[in-house]
Write a structure and sequence with these properties.
about 450 residues, mainly alpha, Amino acid/polyamine transporter I, two-stranded antiparallel ribbon
């Protein structure tokens, strides 16, 4: 989308029902402020990565699991810088989807990347929903049949489909409530757990050394993925140039501190073998090590809140990506249709695809696919940012570092996925990437032919 079309895109990002609320001077009930935007980012990040991928990451990091979180946060800083600059200059409900069009123009490149980004958000949402199901199953003593656990995962998607249909203000309110309760529980876990922790376990070895730490950071990169969610609310802010960077860096900082603190406590509370063995719900087991059954139940409750809030935030982002792409002609305009009072076809379609992903893919598969997918998206956005940085005022070197870091982490994680022996993960991801560009090429060709026929008959 050319720069001259920016204001039009801002008006279109949320559809006809909200067009009257886009100007900075508009004081509407659906505005998202700094606190709500920060909560949206924290909610988007604090999901399945913390609660369900710790055990998987620990197989390569060993007792240096907290270091992997630090490396992941430092890697994310450069992408956050890129997104914050872009979001401040090009506020839009489409977030990165809008950025990519501004960077690459209308064409197969931008269209393919945006279709892939949309799929990435759906995979991420399925990861969080699957994590929710994992903890629900753990609370039931693993007595539930597998299909019932899947029902829990799909059910939470339906719940937040309804929340999103109620409007963006409800999304912000839900995030603030959920994140607030979750943080209280986690802080209680940290305070109580310190008395039972064995600090000598930290840095005691295990894993695959430096390479293992970096590989773990690549896998855990998904835990910071949610910062992009904030940009999808940029055109709902009164002053995105001031509020967006603050919200994004604040969310990243809050989450990084919590991740490092909590992962350090988990390592100090449990032997590495136990962490790996209880990978799907290791944090609840750490709660049990600190405070018995009460600790298990409390942390499991926090996990349910965290994964459900991530479903909320990421489904919100995914539907807006699809809506923005449909309005710009990169997806079918049927997605811009309304459902009920506030819903869109894009929102309902996104929820349906997520439920299918929950049904067919296990937790570790969607976890690796999510990290791989967003490494591609973040790298592409930062590379494209170099083309338009004269308009954003961004410096070149952080953008170059962001591109290099994302490529390096992607390669390491892809190699790890291939070596793990589960071909479905990386084949599905690569297939989604290639398929996105093929879909875009076919869609554009058919749209062009349809336009030519209409002109010929007109």
């Amino acid at each position: 989308m050319p720069l001259s079309s920016k204001r039009c895109a801002q008006r279109q990002a949320y559809g006809p029902r909200e067009e009257v609320q886009v100007t900075a001077s508009s004081v509407s009930a659906s505005r998202i402020g700094l606190f709500a935007a920060t909560a949206l980012g924290v909610g988007g990040m604090m999901g399945a990565g913390l609660y369900t991928l710790l055990g998987l990451a620990a197989t390569s990091t060993g007792s240096y699991l907290p270091v992997a979180f630090v490396v992941g946060a430092l890697a994310a800083v450069f992408s956050v810088y890129s997104y914050a600059r872009l979001g401040s200059r090009f506020p839009s409900g489409g977030g990165a989807a809008h950025f990519i069009v501004e960077e690459y123009g209308h064409g197969i490149s931008s269209g393919g990347l945006n279709v892939f980004q949309y799929l990435a958000y759906l995979i991420a949402t399925s990861l969080y929903a699957t994590g929710f199901a994992e903890y629900a199953d753990a609370l039931g003593g693993h007595a539930l049949p597998q299909w019932m656990a899947k029902v829990f995962g799909m059910g939470i998607v339906l719940v937040f489909l309804a929340v999103n249909v109620l409007g963006s203000k409800m999304v912000g309110r839900a995030e603030m409530l959920i994140v607030g309760i979750e943080i209280v529980i986690l802080l209680g876990f940290v305070i109580i757990g310190l008395s039972s922790a064995q600090p000598s376990r930290l840095g005691s070895g295990g894993g695959d050394g430096t390479l293992g730490i970096i590989t773990g950071a690549a896998l855990l990169y998904v835990t910071y993925q949610g910062f992009g969610v904030v940009t999808n609310a940029s055109n709902r802010m009164v002053s995105p140039r001031r509020e967006l960077p603050r919200a994004m860096f604040a969310a990243l900082g809050i989450v990084a501190v919590l991740y490092v603190t909590i992962s350090s406590l988990v390592v100090a509370l449990m032997p590495q073998a136990a962490i790996v063995a209880n990978a799907g719900h290791v944090l609840a087991n750490a709660g049990q090590a600190a405070l018995g059954r009460i600790g298990f139940l409390a942390v499991a409750a926090a996990a349910l809140l965290a994964t459900s809030s991530a479903v909320n935030a990421t489904l919100f982002a995914a539907s807006n990506v699809a809506f923005d792409e449909a309005r710009s002609g990169e997806l079918s305009r049927l997605l811009t249709g309304t459902v009920g009072r506030n819903g869109t076809v894009a929102l309902v379609t996104s929820a349906a695809i997520v439920m299918l992903l929950v049904l067919f893919f296990p937790l570790d598969a969607v976890g690796q696919m999510t990290s791989l997918a967003f490494l591609v998206v973040y790298g592409a956005v930062s590379a494209g940012h170099l083309r338009v940085r004269a308009h954003t005022g961004a410096r070149a070197w952080p953008l170059v570092v962001a591109v290099v870091v994302n490529i390096m982490l992607f390669v390491l994680l892809l190699v790890h996925a291939i070596r793990s022996g589960d071909a479905s993960t990386w084949i599905t991801l690569v297939g989604a990437l290639i398929g996105s560009f093929l879909f875009e090429a076919v869609f554009r060709a058919r749209s062009s032919r349809s336009s030519q026929r209409r002109e010929a008959t007109g």
